[in-house]
UniProtKB/TrEMBL annotation:
E.C. designation(s): 2.4.99.17
Cited function: Transfers and isomerizes the ribose moiety from AdoMet to the 7-aminomethyl group of 7-deazaguanine (preQ1-tRNA) to give epoxyqueuosine (oQ-tRNA).
Gene (UniProt): queA
Subunit: Monomer.
HAMAP family associated with the record: QueA (MF_00113)
Main location: cytoplasm
Name of protein: S-adenosylmethionine:tRNA ribosyltransferase-isomerase
This protein's record includes keyword Zinc-finger: no
Cellular localization per UniProt: Cytoplasm
Length: 344
């Protein structure tokens, strides 16, 4: 399978650089369960699309202000993207960007009371030790929201609230589970009234979600790894729905990847784990029947995942329609509802 099979052209004006004023004002492109048709709807139509007994699974990870901007002792600018803490809460794995590769022992100053020291390099990553009276508070005070690289503007105060789902609970992500950004408490209540049950998983989204596949043969791509947690009540709800023939709908590719990673046995297992699952066409879905998702980048693993669920040609045709119809793409963009159907 070639990466070029998942390429498409996208005008720059199709990329959403700002959120809409209302979360649930986004458009929704719905694929058919039975044929290659699709329809133009709105996120606010979701209650009418609920099948009584549906289990909708959301990712309750919380985005941290993981981008830190500082300077070296020489005065050179340094940008650090925190990835995840080690077993020591003040030592983080991170990406560093400076005019020269960061070396062991480099001191970085973010403010008079917040500094860091590079402890080691591990391939593309660096280990940094953060120094402050309260490291977590210093990150919150001095950190910037880690907007995706295709949003070519500085983060704003609005992003602190809008690049976060309304159900975000567990801090640790450096990218938002963007399909969940469309949901409001009122919309979720209306969906529950229509017969949907909401349950949560936690997958701390890493920056690898935005990394393009840089090999031509998909089989040569190495997926990034992310930490997840499946609560016991979520496992029980999903397993019960599967046994009773009710739909399990993943809100976002991160929820889907968590469910499939923890459900390889055919039963969803509760607990914590790490996954680098790479879902491509030909994959047999064990847990998920449908997906709510945003539009993804060309040649991306996420576009391949959606194609695995609905069929490559059908997904690319839907993307072409979305482009022509003026849908907004990527993290702050519009959404798709994708019921599973194997491509013939």
């Amino acid at each position: 399978m070639r990466v070029s099979d998942y390429d498409f052209d996208l005008p720059e004006q199709s990329i959403a650089s700002q959120p809409l004023q209302q979360r649930d004002a986004s458009r929704l492109l719905c694929l058919s369960e039975v044929n290659d048709d699709f329809s133009d709807r709105r996120i606010v139509d979701l209650p009418h699309m609920v099948q009584p007994g549906d289990v909708w699974v959301v990712n309750d990870t919380k985005v941290i202000p993981a981008r830190l901007v500082g300077s070296k002792q020489s005065g050179g600018r340094v940008e650090i993207l925190l990835l995840e803490p080690t077993d020591k809460t003040d030592v983080w794995r991170a990406w560093g960007k400076a005019n020269k590769p960061l070396k062991e022992g480099t001191m970085i100053t973010f403010s008079d009371t917040f500094t860091a020291t590079v402890l080691a390099r591990e391939g593309k990553d660096v280990l940094v030790q953060l120094q402050a009276d309260d490291v977590a508070a210093a990150i919150e005070t001095h950190g910037h929201m880690p907007l995706p690289p295709y949003i070519a503007r500085p983060d704003s105060e609005e992003d602190k609230q809008r690049y976060q789902t309304v159900f975000a609970r567990h801090a640790g992500a450096v990218a938002a589970p963007t399909a969940g950004l469309h949901l409001t408490t009122e919309l979720m209540a209306a969906m529950q009234a229509a017969g949907a049950e909401f349950v949560h998983v936690t997958l701390h989204v890493g920056p690898g979600t935005f990394q393009p596949v840089q090999v031509e043969d998909v089989a040569d791509h190495i997926m990034h790894e992310e930490a997840y947690i499946v609560p016991a009540e979520t496992a029980e709800a999903v397993n019960r729905a599967r046994q009773q023939g009710r739909r399990v709908v993943a809100v976002g590719t991160t929820s889907l990847r968590t469910l499939e990673a923890a459900g390889q046995s055919g039963q969803l297992l509760a607990g914590a784990g790490r996954t680098s699952i790479f879902i491509t066409p030909g994959y047999h879905f064990r847990m998920v029947d449908a997906l709510l998702t945003n539009f993804h980048l060309p040649k991306s693993t996420l576009l391949m995942l959606v194609s695995a669920l609905a069929g490559r040609q059908r997904v690319l045709a839907a993307y072409e329609h979305a482009k022509q119809a003026g849908y907004r793409f990527y993290s702050y963009g519009d959404a798709m509802f994708v019921p599973g159907r194997t491509e013939s």
